[in-house]
Amino acid sequence: LWQGLSPGLRRPVPADSLAAMATAPEIAEGELAARRSDRNFYHWCLNRLFALGAAADNPGGPPPLLVAPETPGFVAESLAAALGGRPWPMRVVDPVVRVRRLTLSGQPVLGIANRDACARMLDPILAAADAAPPPPGESGPLLYLSRRDSRRRPLVNEAEAEERLLRLGFASVSFGGRGFLEQVRIIRAARLIVSPHGAGLAHLAFARPGITVVELMPAVSYAGARFNMARISRAVGHRHVIWIEPAEAVGQAWSLRIEEVLPLIARLAEDADAPLR
Questions:
Q1: What is the pLDDT at residue 247?
Q2: How many CA atoms lie within 13 A of 14 on its CB side?
Q3: Predicted structure pTM score
Q4: Radius of gyration of the chain (CA)
Q5: Which of 27, 160, 218, 237 is deepest in the core (most CB within 10 A)?
Q6: Separation between Cα atoms, residue 191 and residue 276, nearest integer Å
Q7: CA dihedral 258, 262, 265, 270 (to 10 degrees)
Q8: What angle (nearest 5°) sits at the alpha carbon of residue 63, between those of residues 61 and 69?
Q9: How far apart are CA 263 and CA 165, in angstroms?
Q10: Distances (CA, A) of 114 to 107, 108, 139, 165
Q11: Max Cα-Cα span within the chain
């Protein structure tokens, strides 16, 4: 047996997988969300969540979402928000399950540009977020998204950068430990977002169109993949500025030229009161 749709990607199904198929529990149908990419906030929101509109309106109810044991909470929280508070049925695949009818909904990142196609899942989330005020003192029109809780691509002088941005009137927020709708509420209140490159910027899909974004990015060899956040801004209608800093290798610690980038941020902050759509 072979797996993979494209002839160039076909490879034999591993023997362990074939053996597991013979004894795995069987269900009638399911929507696949147990891949490693589905546990990344960026990939979940941009490549999966908005594509589940048709499954959400299945006459018999959404099919069970097949998830891995370590699936993060934002998966269930975002789906519940899109369904008006109702939970999406889920089944943990541990280690395997046999599915008679398996579906895999997905779309490219720029699918967000097709507003009508995303509306079924996106609009209820925005309505739920807008129905409650942002957490007091932790959000505002000038927002810095901190990566202080992340071990990947550490910004070694981030504490100094945060302190300087606070002087300009920015609120500094880390999304670690916050609920999904709370994060969306914070983003919806922002008019200027400054942030190191990271999955948290996938929230740009939920921001009010027309904001300004300053993305602080370490330059690496596969920099082409690092422009995905700017593509979101282009599709939604934001103004997006990328500030590139040198970095020796993927994942390596890097520094921000604070004195050089602050004048740019200060100028943009002066325009942060411009009307949004």
A1: 74
A2: 3
A3: 0.88
A4: 21
A5: 218
A6: 8
A7: 160
A8: 130
A9: 11
A10: 11, 11, 29, 35
A11: 64
